[in-house]
Fold:
Amino acid sequence: MDAVKHNHNITYRCHYHVVWCPKYRRKVITSLDPKLNNPPIPGDPGPVDARLKEIIQDVCKEHDSEILELETMPDHVHLLVDCDPQYGINKLVRLIKGRSSRLLRQEYPSLKRRIPTLWTNSYFVATVGGTPLEIVKQYVENQRNV
Structure:
């Protein structure tokens, strides 16, 4: 997990902590987790968080980015990801947000009714740098307990 990776002419170890929110910070990421108190909306095929995680995993797998930790909250998403610096974290986040917005709005009718677009244009990204990776993973894991 903390290994150095190789790609063509570069050797890298780039871990990024990314956070983004739905438009207007609306609590539209529904879940079956009773701690979150945000159950699926009648008429939707199920909880949004499970499908969102599948989409994020698919996009990361397609672009050889390893998900180290992923947590969804009703009004934001935390992603700890290992990304090729030649590809760029900005492209990866743009693809994740674009594909998840398109697919989730097609599959979940409540999302079209509640907000004009799924995600805000902005996001937060920080390199993990010298911080021990386990501490950052623990922070992301514990977001539901905060």
